[in-house]
Amino acid sequence: MMKNWLAAGAAALTVGMTSTIAQAQTTTVPGEQVGLAIGAPLPEGIYALNTFTYRRTDAPNSPDTAVNIPVLVWSTPLVPLGGRIELLVAPPTVFAFTRNAAGQNNKDISINVGTFVGGIWAFDLGGNFGVSLLGGVYLNELNGDRGSVCGLNGPVNSTLNFNGRVAAGLGGGCTPVLPQLSSNTYRMGVAGSYTGDGWNITGNITANFYDSPGRFGGTVGAAIGPIRLSDALNFDLTATKTFGNFEIGAVGYGTYNFDISQFSAAAGNRGRFALGGLVGYDFKVFKVQAYVARDVVTGAQYVSAGGRVRDNYSTDGWIRFIVPLYSPAPAASPIPAPLVRKY
Questions:
Q1: Which UniProt keyword terms apply here (predicted)?
Q2: CA gap 129, 115 in Å, rounded
Q3: CATH for the 2-101+108-134+183-209+229-326 domain, from 3.20.20.10, 3.90.1200.10, 2.40.160.40, 1.20.1250.20
Q4: Is the pLDDT of residue 129 over 90?
C-alpha cells in the first residue's frame, strides 16, 4: 500500500509551480517531489492529489509565498516495453502575502498559472527498484494573466521588482512578478527509487527549459520588454522509513540556475539547497504527508537595514494529500469445473 501511495504522489507532483516570488527563476518547485517514490510505477487507476507549500524568507518585510497544486493522474493500462504510461494534468496557483511595516501599503495577490500537461513512463526493474522518465510542458503562454502586477502606485514590495525593471506610467507601475511565465516551460525528468522493507530511497533530477527571451503580451508586456530566462536543474532526495501506518525520514532538495548574468531572471542567484524532515500517515482511504525544510545554501541575498548584504535563507512548510479515485476491479477467478472420474 505504501509503495502505491508514494508512486501516486510522484506522478502528480511533477506539476508544481515556483514557490516564491523572490527566489531563483525555476518554474518547477524545488522540493515538490520529495517523500515520493518517483521511480515506482503506479498501479492502474485514477488518482487525485493536492500539495500546498508555504514559504518565508529571512529578508524583513519580504512577501510570504505559497503554491497550491491540484492534480489528476490517470495511470493507464498501457505498458509499452514493460513501462507503465501515466498521464497527468494540473492547474497550479501561486499566492503572495506582503509583510510591509505599518504605514506602508500591503496587498495579497494570486496568479493562476498555465496548466501543466505531461506523462511519465515508469518501469519496475524487480528487487524493489524502479526508474521513470518524465516529459511535459507548462502552458504559460495560453494564460491571459501570467504574473504582471500594475496599478499599485509602485511595485508591491521591493523584492517583487524584476532586477529593477518596473514599467512606469502604467497605472502607477508594472512589474513581472513571475518572469518565468513569459514563456512556456518544457520539462524533462529522470528518477530512481528503492521501496523494499518499508524504505523509500529516491533520487530525482528535473530540468526546465525556456523559450528565451520570453515576453508578456499587451501594453504591460511592451513596456517591460523581453525577459531573459535561465534553464535550470532541480534535485529532490528522499530517505524515509514506514512503521505500520506511520512514515518518518529526511528530505533534501535544491535548484541550480545556468544563467545568472545581469539580465537573467535568475540574476546573481545560482540556486539553493534545503534539508528537512518528513512525517506521514496512511489512513487507508487517503494518505497525508507533511514536511518542513530550511535552506543550508542559497544564492539569494538582501540588504539589511544597516546596509549589509546577507544571504536570504528561507523556510518551507508542505502538506500533501493523496486520494485514489478509481482502480479497476480484479479479474474474477474462473469457477473450477467439477472433477469427474470413472473407476
A1: Signal
A2: 31
A3: 2.40.160.40
A4: yes
